[in-house]
Amino acid sequence: MRTASRVLGSAFFESGFEVQDAPRYGAERRGAPTFAYVRASRATIHERGIIGHPDLVIVADESLPAVPAAAVMQGVTARTVVLIHSREDAAVWKQRLNLDGLVITLPTSEANAETPFVGSVSAGAAARLVGVVSREALLSAVRAEIAPFGELALRESERHVLEAYESMAAHAGVVVEGDEARALDYARPEWIRVPFEEARISAPAIHAAATSVQVKTGAWRTMRPVVHESLCKKCWWICSTFCPDSAIEVTAENRPQIDYDHCKGCMICVAICPSHAIEAARETEQRSEGPHDA
Amino acid sequence: MTRQLLTGNGAAAWGARLARVDYVPAFPITPQTEIIETLADWFDSGAMPGKLVTLESEHSMITAAGAAAATGVRVFTATSSQGLLYGMEMIYAVAGWRAPFVMVNVSRGLGTPTTLESDHTDVLAARDSGFLQIHCATCQEVLDTILMGYRLAEDTRTRLPVIVNLDGFYLSFTREPVEIPESRAVSEFLPPYDPQNVRFRASAPTSQGVAVLGGSPYSYFRYEAHLAALRGVEVYDEVASEFEAAFGRRHDAVEAYRCEDADIVFVMMGSFSTKAKAAVDELRRAEQKVGLVRIRLLRPFPVEALRRAVAGVGGIAVIDQNLSMGRGGVLHTEIASALYGEQDAPRMLLSFIGGLGGRDISPEELFEIAAETRKAVDSGRAPPTRLLYTAGELREIRKLQAIAEVERREPEQKS
Amino acid sequence: MSETLFTRMKDLPSTHLLGAGTPMCAGCGGLSALHEIYDVLGPKTVFVNAAGCMTLLSVYPFTPFRGSWLYTSMASAPAGAQGVRDALDILVEQERMPEEEDLEVVVLTGDGSAYGMGLSSTSSAIERGLDFLYICYDNEGYGNTGHQASGATPHAAKTSTSAGPRGFAGYKKDLFSIWAAHEPAYVATVIGSEPLDLARKVEKAKSLTGPRLIIALAPCPTGWEYEPRESIDIGRLAVKTGVWPLKEYESGTVTHTIVPSPRLPVAEYLQRQGRFAHLFQPARNDALLAALQARVDAYWDQV
């Protein structure tokens, strides 16, 4: 998403706009949700930080809207255009997320679901949707941002970016500049006087064990490991020991039980099972509640 | 009741002993060393149960102090200037743990250039950290303030560590008569430390000092510590009243000396304020209406008490023994912000900087400060900030500069 | 060999104590070692943490620990451990806390602190004979800040501050020897990909008192540039090529617990990692590879 924001930001800049773009890091972790934002304006941009009322939201990982902590739809209104990389229909998403505004999908396939070019694709699509960025500006931006990654990456990015740009032809210019916050009739902030609370409540301390289990890191996955019982030799300790995240337990009958709420999809268990009894399967769109075993 | 001659450092050690501290992480620095040597001796001899441990730096020392307090014991430590600054990261960190303890700072000027002598710039660097801060003017106050300091730190309304400041050399190495209270009376005034839920034990897993993601939670934790610091004003006053009832000595957050009808007032902190008291007495004999306001409690800042003390006064001379580079005296700024907008705030607020690196402030200088302040009140014009410095002193500097060859001589030609 | 609970793989636990849901990277080699260590150490512990990747294990209100935790700073975790240990001892000695409430104090630190900023406080804690355990997860760089070179970075490795054609010019510091020179109670190297060896060493460390220090090599998908699924394989290669010797120090003697024989060529380990790609592309840097091989050979020649 950092690539997406930088390519789009540079493309706007090439097109004569003032630009402000930045990635937003939560914990800087491989596999965890990240997002980035871009502001573009003809005039100097004074506003800063997260965008309260986006004109366009691009969702590169379709599992994220289901994750509350990712807050993907924050600030979205009826005038926001929402673009989602997904195999499903825009109509399905519009209903699922209860959106009043325009929803567009960028089709993903088996081949490109884990593409490293998702950033470029997002930027290319966005460039067409905003209507003010030319192909030339877009390619110039891609060259500037992707060149450090090598010739091959550059050529592939250029190809993907132009494909995405073309694919949005029907919606060219549908994203328009919104208004700034208006001082005449703004929604008043709900200020309070923070009440004093004794240290036993207000110190930054956690008075409980293992509260981390409430964080469903299973949302990080793009692939999931599936145990084939028929192949499992019930050695019983290997996959469970080597899972770094304590996401595999072994039952009384020596069967490995994968905790899909927390499995990050690192695939170590797939790689080290000596019987090759664990398979890497595509994560399904609809995240089910319980574990899946073949 | 035992009244004996004690140095400020000796009084500090007695304060820790009477407070029955369990643990003293230590690291030596001039002018504090006598404190930890005395305590080490008492731990070794069994006069105090518990332990003193020498760490390898003040940064580690303050970490160990906070960690032990966070585990649930009563902790004491001491440092000065360069050591305080070396540990400054942890000063902020342990205050945020909300684990209470008392740290004595023996104030000393900060390098550069290196000095061993006293001023307040060091302890003021901890002003914003969350540590509460009290400034002592006599060796008696040092002992008393440590006892009061534990009550202030451990109160459930505050739960913040406390710095008790005493001036290097002028108090640390100077003997004065000090009343050493009876141990039993102290135990009644200061019961054992109850850590509540800030401690470590097997049956109650706790994660302390954890990280946070997001400005809203961060703001909550930081501001709650600040609100607790503000509660320190009322807690301090209660503790001071109880201390007076138990031991007969009153140590107000803001001491007002002969201010009732004063039209000029000195404002100072620390041991040199007793010199100002002597000057006030002399000026009164010369029929001038001068008083002294001494700030004892600096954090939290007792805004109301200050306003009451100077209400109706015509001119204030703030005498700072510290320097904020590029602005001037820190106490001056604190006083100005506390008085701004107050209806009967004094019209004239003058700033004097003196006593840096232990430089004396003579009685004549105090008389002259009063005269300048009166002139300002009469004319309605305050002079710019003045560093107390004489022509004679500058001449001495020139002599030193000549020796240091500030104007470098041309190298001699070799034939 | 002394008594151990861990003679066979099946002696390792099948359920794990450390809670899931932490924000460590998928495939984190450090977490791999930590969760194995925690199974042996148990919840009657207080982990005193130095700044690094694992600081983010506990982010309010979430923690994976079933025992306790205290975050200190980058440089002073051993001093924090000193404070906690001393306070617990005082409370138990003075009968202000029942003995069963006592905890083992464990420092958890990355290589950034252990090999560098924290070396002073670690040295002093050992010198004072502090009774504590010290676990360093070593991913050979300042991982949490984006993998810049640290005192633990090996020669020729690419990091974000050594991205030139020859990689890092320095050499990995020999922390094991530095610690052993202090003559502590115990020093050991471990790795998550050798869980039985790791469990035995942690079990032994647990049974001793005094300063006990462990370094776990932590293969790092993010910093070393490989797919997360390869973490265990790369760990195994680190051992089989002799790059990561598995050894322990006790009472003046160093013993190697696993001796790779035959030793695989170092290149097989390096090839799997993007941080050494410049040694193979666009052309094989035979000179540098030979130098790296020679260093490893020289180590094992004197064992």
**Overall geometric form of chain A:** globular
**Could you tell me the strand content of chain B as a percent range?**
15-25%
Q: How many helix segments of chain A?
A: 8
Please summarize the sheet with the most strands of chain B. 6 strands, mixed
**So, CATH architecture of the largest domain in chain B?**
3-Layer(aba) Sandwich
Question: What is the tally of beta strands of chain A?
Answer: 9
- Helix percentage of chain A: 25-40%
**CATH class bucket of the largest domain in chain B:** Alpha Beta
User: Which class of secondary structure composition applies to the elements of chain B?
Assistant: alpha/beta
Observed structural traits:
heterotrimer; A: 294 residues; alpha/beta; Pyruvate-ferredoxin Oxidoreductase, domain 3; Alpha-Beta Plaits; 2 domains; two-stranded antiparallel sheet; 8 helices; C: 303 residues; Rossmann fold; 8-stranded mixed sheet; 10 helices; 16% strand; globular
Can you describe what's shown?
The complex is a heterotrimer of chains A (294), B (415) and C (303). Helices cover 26% and strands 15% of the residues of chain A. Chain A has 294 residues and is an alpha/beta fold. Chain B has 14 helices and 16 strands. In chain B, helix 3 runs parallel beside helix 5, helix 7 packs across helix 9 and helix 10 (272-285) crosses helix 13. By secondary structure, chain B is an alpha/beta fold. Chain C has one domain: Thiamin diphosphate (ThDP)-binding fold, Pyr/PP domains (Rossmann fold, 3-Layer(aba) Sandwich), CATH 3.40.50.970. The two termini of chain C are 20 Å apart. Chains in contact: A-B, A-C, B-C. At the A-C interface, helix 7 and helix 8 of A face helix 1 and helix 8 of C. Strand 9 (207-208) of chain B pairs parallel with strand 2 of chain C, so a sheet runs across the interface.
